[in-house]
Write a structure and sequence with these properties.
single chain; 544 residues; 7-stranded mixed sheet; 6-stranded antiparallel sheet; 28% helix; globular
Length: 544
């Protein structure tokens, strides 16, 4: 019934999709196995891609020839470049996506990719011979052979869902958990552990009063993620901001005695940097409010994602608390928030190629390695797919250095340090972050991928044109100099610093010393320039 494949990818989340695409585009015959063909590339949590450091990862995936950047550009409903108040190395693209369009676009691109086959079934175990992974055995009893296997199981391995005192098996709401793989791998010498994550309630946007919230529009200029020329949306949808309050917190506390997190029913460690609302109240008891982002799920739906309100409290407590949030007085909940526990395998058991050390030709990618986030999963899937192809063809693996990419930082962190909590990428993790900008990922990575056979000729030509443009600018700068006095008139019109000493705004601020304590100021109501001494600003008080 089944031919022998080069690579079998188990799971069709963000990691599995990128793994299948990269291996297939390199020339391997790939079988993508998922328990539900209707949920390929589903955005299980928030309908967004990118963000601080995560946006850089998506651009690196695109520069290497992955699909995530293209899919995001085709399905975005809002785009924002974060951190513009900081230097260019900290700028991070983020896009709000149409959840259903995102998944449909991913599936369409995979179906149009040569060498990719699909099959809907659960994988219960691996076929192992002579210390090598040689295929999988499915729930329907099929033995499907391959030369390598990439496992991207997400939250499905022995997944357990918690809503208040309710507890039931599942890898995602309304979807059953996967069993068998953990037990087999542990018997083969692997170490496993438990982690947990959560998601907020989804609500009916028609029941909200947006006049009580702050509107958050997208950028006028949509940069996007892909270095290819992908059409951008002509219009954007707004997100909204509101806040919890002390009344909300008091109501939530009434459910703590039934919270699985506080009663000990959840064993796994949750994400430190994306805590549940009950965890926020507990950890930041001094705060009387927390910010909530009201994010639409798409162009043609009223469903809303309440970013910042992840919870596993009882349904009635969630409902009562939400009704005390400004704008939510008449809220209707589509489905409650919940927490989910799942198995993962500490990533110190991997090589830098993401191949497992105990079992040859077996690769792990995504949440099975202890990470959290679509972007972290997608880049691992890309690398696992590439290296699975490389391994079975006796070629050198692609291993990115920490100085080359955020992807290199992520993989090295996992393999070298391991993790006992869901790992999330931050700019602070990258020692070379000033070089690893979101706008130069193509210059850093496309040529490497092109030589590997993954990045297309079109990508390489665009990268060459960009590099030539950069060289031309450098040549101009070598022959062109400008005195500070000549640039001052231009800067007066562009820079609007704030003097914290007297709270007045000036048209220019020229800092001639390295201590940054003496400034030449030109007041808007006077043409007289004077030199004043301004105390060095603290961390909370910076010049703009």
């Amino acid at each position: 019934m089944f031919p022998q494949y080069d690579v079998i990818v188990v799971g069709a989340g963000h990691a599995g999709c990128e793994a299948a695409a990269s291996a297939a585009n390199l020339g391997s015959r790939v079988l993508l196995i998922t328990m539900n063909m209707q949920t390929i590339a589903q955005m299980s949590c928030n309908p967004a891609m990118g963000g601080i450091a995560k946006g850089q990862i998506v651009r690196e995936i695109d520069a290497l020839g992955g699909y995530s950047g293209i899919v995001t550009d085709k399905s975005m409903i809002q785009f924002r470049m974060l951190n513009r108040s900081k230097g260019p190395a900290m700028w991070s693209p983020r896009a709000q996506s149409d959840r259903m369009l995102f998944a449909a676009t991913w599936r369409g691109m995979l179906e149009q990719t040569p060498n990719v086959d699909f099959y809907q079934d659960m994988v219960n175990s691996l076929i192992v011979k002579d210390g090598k992974a040689c295929g999988v055995i499915t729930g329907l009893g099929h033995e499907i052979h391959s030369r390598a296997v990439v496992v991207t199981s997400g939250t499905f391995l022995n997944g357990v869902i918690h809503i208040g005192e309710k507890r039931f098996g599942g890898g995602r709401v309304a979807e059953k958990a996967a069993t068998g793989i953990t037990e087999q791998l542990v018997s083969l010498g692997f170490e496993s552990d438990r982690l947990k994550t959560g998601t907020p309630p989804r609500i009916d946007g028609r029941s909200l009063d947006y006049s009580k919230m702050e509107e958050q529009k997208g950028d006028e200029e949509i940069v996007g993620f892909s270095y290819l020329d992908i059409p951008k949306p002509q219009q954007q949808r707004s997100c909204w901001i509101t806040y919890t309050n002390q009344t909300v917190h008091d109501i939530l506390k009434t459910g703590f005695d039934r919270s699985p997190m506080y009663t000990g029913r959840i064993e796994g460690v949750g994400p430190r940097y994306c805590p549940s609302i009950e965890d926020k109240i507990n950890r930041f008891a001094e705060r009387d409010r927390h910010q909530l982002f009201i994010e639409p799920e798409g162009w043609n739906t009223v469903e809303i994602y309440v970013n910042g309100f992840s919870t596993s409290l009882p349904e009635e407590v969630q409902n009562q608390a939400l009704r005390q949030v400004p704008g939510f007085e008449n809220v209707r909940i589509f489905r409650p928030g919940y927490a989910i526990e799942y198995d993962y395998f500490p990533p110190t058991q991997l090589k830098h190629s993401l191949e497992t050390k105990p079992l040859e030709n077996l690769f792990f990618a995504g949440q099975i390695n202890g990470t959290t986030g679509y972007e972290e999963a997608a880049c691992q899937g890309l690398m696992a797919g590439i290296n699975a192809h490389q391994k079975i063809n006796q070629l050198e693996p692609l291993i990115l250095k920490r100085s080359e990419a955020y992807i290199g930082v992520l993989v090295d962190d996992l393999i070298s340090k391991g993790t006992d909590e869901p790992y999330r990428m931050f700019t602070s993790r990258a020692e070379f972050r000033t070089l690893l900008r979101q706008d130069n990922a193509d210059l850093r990575l496309t040529e490497t991928s092109y030589r590997l056979g993954l990045a297309s000729q079109e990508r390489m030509e665009k990268t060459i044109q960009k590099q030539q443009g950069v060289e031309k600018i450098k040549e101009v700068l070598k022959d062109f100099s400008l005195e500070p006095s000549e640039s001052l008139e231009y800067l007066k019109e562009k820079i609007q610093p704030r003097c914290f000493k007297n709270k007045k705004r000036f048209r220019s601020c020229f800092v001639p010393t390295s201590t940054s304590t003496r400034c030449q100021l030109l007041s808007p109501d006077s043409k007289k320039r004077s030199t004043v001494t301004i105390p060095r600003p603290s961390n909370k008080q910076r010049y703009r």
